[in-house]
Design a protein that fits this description.
13-stranded mixed sheet; mainly beta
């Protein structure tokens, strides 16, 4: 079932991204296009009002294309300028206009395969990043979804009102949303995922996992040696699956809910009043799970 879910998620994400790009390009006009030489830029910074932002791997050089409707052309001032080794891309609100709710604009940036640092900030749009390799990648939106597929580097993604998805990524990820779901699939590296109101699904390999939701379920599938796994929810169920030969010290607490540990290597050392402690295959890394209201289960992959 896990393989089917992952395949379906990847296909769905690819279709959505492709459809969005095609729709935006077909309906909106090209407002700005610039190309910058490869090797002269080590960092890309995007600061935009009311724009979707898409960054993906392209050919040689860095190509910036900005599409928008008539309102975008009227209400926003677009720019793409090089300052030393930094490329600054912007979409600023023109003076005298307060609301940008009807504006439809999209910034598309194609970057080379070589590593660059990337910072994207948009006040009202979705952010997508595909096959980008960087030392540091920081993505932030005040009102949209964040999607990252492939690539690598130290990733930080935050949204004040949307979902976050990361697929097939090589490197540590720190993800935070104030009102949406978090999906992490095929990540090689530490995972820190938090949401104030949604579900969290993690499929990762090696590295620490710290996942928390204030109101939703947690489903974590972990492969590799356990170092530190910390899971928590205020209201929801938690399911953790680890390798059959994993070694860990397990501690589970729940105020209201059932606890089930069916891992074949588990040796329960304490079970009383909503708390369970166990050694898995003799003990090892740390697993701490806390569900204030909800059921907890630990199984083998």
């Amino acid at each position: 079932m896990r393989i089917n879910w992952r395949t379906g998620l990847v296909v769905k994400a690819a279709v959505i991204v492709a459809a969005a790009a095609t729709l935006g390009t077909a309906q909106n006009k090209l407002l700005l296009e610039k190309t910058f030489a490869e090797g002269s830029i080590m960092r890309v910074e995007v600061d935009a009002e009311a724009c979707d932002v898409d960054v993906s791997q392209g050919g040689s050089g860095i190509v910036v294309k900005i599409y928008g409707d008539d309102d975008a052309d009227k209400y926003l001032e677009f720019s793409a300028e090089q300052d030393g080794s930094t490329l600054e891309v912007g979409a600023e609100k023109r003076g005298g206009f307060n609301s940008l709710s009807d504006v439809d604009a999209r910034i598309e940036i194609a970057v080379p395969a070589s590593a660059i640092d990337l910072s994207v900030k948009t006040a009202g749009g979705d952010v997508s990043c595909s096959d980008v390799n960087g030392g540091a990648i920081n993505l932030k939106t005040a009102g949209g979804d964040v999607s990252v597929t492939e690539g690598g580097g130290e990733l930080s993604a935050k949204t004040a009102g949307g979902d976050i998805s990361v697929t097939d990524y090589d490197g540590p990820v720190e993800l935070k949303t104030a009102g949406g779901d978090v999906s992490v699939v095929g990540v090689k590296g530490a995972v820190n995922a938090k949401t104030a109101g949604g579900d969290v699904r993690v499929e990762s390999e090696n590295g620490d996992v710290d996942a928390e939701t204030a109101g939703g379920d947690l489903d974590v599938v972990y492969s590799g040696d356990v170092e530190s796994i910390t899971l928590g929810t205020s209201a929801g169920d938690i399911r953790l699956s680890i390798d059959e030969d994993a070694k860990a010290d397990l501690e589970i607490t729940t105020n209201i809910g059932d606890i089930s540990v069916s891992h074949p290597g588990a040796n329960v050392t304490k079970s009383k009043d909503g708390k369970l402690e166990a050694e898995i295959n003799g003990g090892g890394g740390s697993i701490e799970i806390n569900a204030s209201v909800g059921d907890v289960s630990v199984v083998a992959n």
